[in-house]
């Protein structure tokens, strides 16, 4: 029972304490056994029989050997301990270096990727995954880049480095993606196969902005060319009207006035009647020109009355199309520029519907709305026609002109349409705009949007 208790207590000690206890116990048991059996005397007596071999000196030699062994073990233990500490420090530094490398590799905004010569992805960081979004089951990058992989590898092996200012990425999700890229060829060494290191910088937002600016610039060029063409047509029309109508009647009036000076009273009466008739024709011609250049209803009836008259005239030309109106601006007086832009937007939208939409119903809504403590004039024109594909570039200038007119007054323009889904045009104009910008002034005075009756 005491032995069991002693073993149980021994099991609770540390490894070093257990070893020390074993050594002390072994030494005590050896001393007790040697004292009980007189082992030293017996050994000395046996060694004396071999005095010629000097075996009696062996115990002292063994004792010295033990002391030297203890000294040697202590030195080796200190060296091993120092080596262990050095290795621990080295492993800690290596772990920190690996963590730093992993942080830099994964945390960098640049997409880094390691490829083999067949385009298989060996390693990449999170930025590369965010930019390119490779499929989890497809670890090959050949289809990601907009170039022939075999020709690219041959060129890279010859040049060792290839840079791309703008490279299109074929993302699996189909979203547009453009990057600036650098590919470096790493030759094989020490039984390590050759690799391709890629570094990608996401430039999608910048490229999309550039494409949008280029599209806007092209639209502005088309709109400016159209405006100049329409300006020349208007000048030609006005010159023709003045020459053919006003000019002829003014010439007749001048000739009658010269004749009147030499005429008797009876002839003077006839000439005066003719002059009055010619003057009336001149006035009618001038009124027609004024109406062509600016809708007089805007000045006399305001925006709502002018739009109602416009739509009534439009219905006469398009009797098969049912038109629904919802016009309400309250008692608020609108600025002249706002009236002109709203009128021209409705006019151009109706012209487009008559020409292209093939619609049976049209809804026109003009109202004042409140948004974030701001008053806005909202214009909506909707039809149930064949619609259009808004993702395709349009060669027409009608929609571009409407957008430019609205945005020139710091407004917003929105187009929603689809094939066989009709079209919805929404424009919002701030009512606190008191003065048009220079760009707006040119658009307001530009007769580029023809009246539907004369187009």
UniProtKB/TrEMBL annotation:
**Organism encoding this protein:** Methylophilus medardicus
Q: Which UniProt keywords apply?
A: Kinase, Membrane, Transferase, Transmembrane, Transmembrane helix, Two-component regulatory system
Q: Where is the Histidine kinase domain?
A: 344-433
UniProt protein name: Histidine kinase domain-containing protein
Fetch the SMART domains from UniProt.
HATPase_c
Which superkingdom is the protein from? Bacteria
Please provide, in alphabetical order, the Gene Ontology terms of the cellular component aspect for this entry.
membrane
One Gene Ontology term of the molecular function aspect: protein dimerization activity
**Membrane-spanning residues:** 21-40, 52-72
> Mind telling me which PANTHER family this protein's record contains?
NITRATE/NITRITE SENSOR PROTEIN NARX-RELATED, SIGNAL TRANSDUCTION HISTIDINE-PROTEIN KINASE_PHOSPHATASE UHPB
């Amino acid at each position: 029972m005491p032995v069991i208790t002693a073993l149980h207590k021994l099991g609770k000690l540390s490894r070093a304490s257990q070893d020390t206890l074993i050594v002390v116990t072994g030494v005590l048991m050896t001393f007790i056994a040697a004292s009980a059996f007189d082992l030293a005397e017996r050994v000395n007596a046996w060694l004396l029989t071999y005095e010629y071999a000097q075996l009696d000196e062996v115990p002292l030699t063994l004792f010295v050997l033990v002391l030297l062994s203890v000294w040697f073990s202590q030195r080796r233990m200190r060296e091993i301990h120092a080596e262990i500490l050095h290795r621990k420090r080295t492993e800690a530094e290596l772990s920190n270096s690996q963590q730093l490398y992993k942080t830099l590799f994964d945390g960098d905004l640049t997409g880094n990727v390691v490829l083999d010569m067949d385009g298989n992805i060996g390693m990449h960081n999170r930025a590369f995954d965010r930019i390119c979004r490779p499929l989890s089951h497809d670890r090959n990058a050949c289809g990601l880049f907009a170039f022939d992989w075999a020709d690219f590898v041959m060129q890279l092996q010859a040049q060792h480095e290839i840079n791309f200012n703008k490279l299109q990425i074929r993302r699996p999700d189909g979203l547009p993606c453009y990057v600036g890229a650098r590919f470096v060829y790493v030759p094989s060494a020490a039984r390590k196969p050759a690799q391709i290191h890629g570094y990608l910088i996401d430039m999608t937002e910048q490229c999309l902005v550039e494409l949008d600016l280029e599209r806007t610039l092209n639209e502005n060029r088309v709109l400016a060319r159209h405006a100049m063409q329409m300006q020349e047509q208007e000048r030609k029309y006005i010159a023709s009207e003045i020459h053919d109508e006003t000019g002829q009647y003014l010439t007749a009036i001048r000739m009658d006035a010269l004749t009147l000076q030499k005429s008797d009273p009876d002839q003077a009466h006839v000439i005066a009647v003719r002059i009055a008739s010619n003057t009336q024709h001149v006035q009618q011609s001038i009124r027609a020109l004024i109406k062509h250049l600016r809708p007089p209803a805007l000045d006399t009836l305001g925006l709502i009355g002018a739009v109602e008259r416009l739509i009534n005239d439009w219905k006469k030309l398009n009797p098969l199309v049912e038109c629904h109106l919802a016009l309400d601006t309250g008692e608020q007086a609108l600025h002249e520029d706002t009236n002109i832009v709203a009128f021209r937007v409705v006019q151009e939208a109706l012209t487009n519907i008559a020409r292209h939409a093939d619609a049976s119903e049209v809804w026109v809504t003009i109202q004042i709305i409140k948004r974030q403590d701001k008053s806005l004039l909202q214009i909506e024109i909707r039809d149930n026609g064949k619609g259009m594909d808004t993702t395709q570039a349009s060669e027409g200038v009608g929609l571009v002109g409407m957008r430019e007119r609205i945005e020139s007054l710091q407004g917003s323009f929105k187009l929603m349409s689809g094939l066989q889904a009709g079209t919805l045009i929404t424009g919002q104009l701030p009512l606190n705009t008191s003065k048009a910008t220079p760009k707006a002034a040119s658009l307001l005075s530009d007769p580029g949007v023809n009246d539907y009756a004369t187009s």
